Amino acid sequence: MAERVPPRTVVAGLPLLRRIVLAGARAGFADIRVHKALAGAEDLLAGTRTSTLSADEPDTPRAARRIVILPANVVPQARWLRSLLEAELRPETLYVDPSLTAVIETADPARLLASASRYRSAGELLGELRSGFAQLAGAFEASGRFALTAPRDVGRAEDWLLRGLVKQREGFMSRHFERRISLALTRRLVATRVTPNAMTLGSVAVGLVGALFFLSVSPASQLVGALLFLAHSILDGCDGELARLKFIESRRGAILDFWGDNFVHVAVFGCIAAGCSLATGAAWPLALGAVTIASGLGSAACVFRRTTLDVVPGAGASRTDRLTEAFAHRDFIYLVIVLSAFGRADVFLILASVGTPIFLGLLLWVGAARRRA
Question: Fewer CB in a 10 Å sphere around the end CB: N or C, the chain?
Fold first, then answer.
């Protein structure tokens, strides 16, 4: 429906109308219609599966159907739109939330869509629908959408979108420190042509350069390496943020991101082991490095699917599930920084050579328990 904010208003790198349509498609809406009042903005919808809402709806199935009416000034989260599709509703009852987003399950969708085509705003349409349907306040999650009242609200809407990018599977430092930096970078990158895959490759390059500094046992060299390792972790967050903001996630990108990150971990562990071995003339650091790398890669293979889907243990998760989640966080980087400041990255290698096999064992145990269940 037409509102006061122009459909071409750019919000986090995408025109508002395109962002709404892409969020709907991501949420699982098979039939997305754009009001005729937005004619002239068709170029914003290139490559999307949308049609124009008109008074004549010959293709609308004559069967019960759920319809979501979203004003064109509301920036939605895809997960919020999906919740509107999945919510339990009373048939022939109009649910409306304060943003004038409305949901109704009706046996005559063609009549409702034809009515919608006659009005230029959600407020006008809802005025008619309220006279024909029972109405209940929509118990929709308010944090799942942002209503723009004027173009000056764009900055606040972008802040809201960026906050929504913080993954559930985050360690404390990652959530409260790294994400603050990566989101600030993403906000500037989203208006450029930088792609998520380019960010992934850039972060991997920074991490590999940082790994080389661990070939030395000098505190200054190791500290530089640890800080570059942290910079890699921060930049590694930008690729996923860009992809989700622009609705350009791909399995290929997820694989590149995940294994690129693990390739950096292998390089860091390998260089710490090699540097310690060169400094001491002993072989034990190489053995510990091999154990850490092998266990780390095994663990990565086990958690790949869960990590890329951003799944967290639910309320009924076992203690072991929660423990494996805690081990998967990347806050260990800050321990690397502290030890490296004293030239003792080898201490971290010793700890990792014990912790990673334990983590791998836990993952295998949990996997076996799930298969038995």
Answer: C
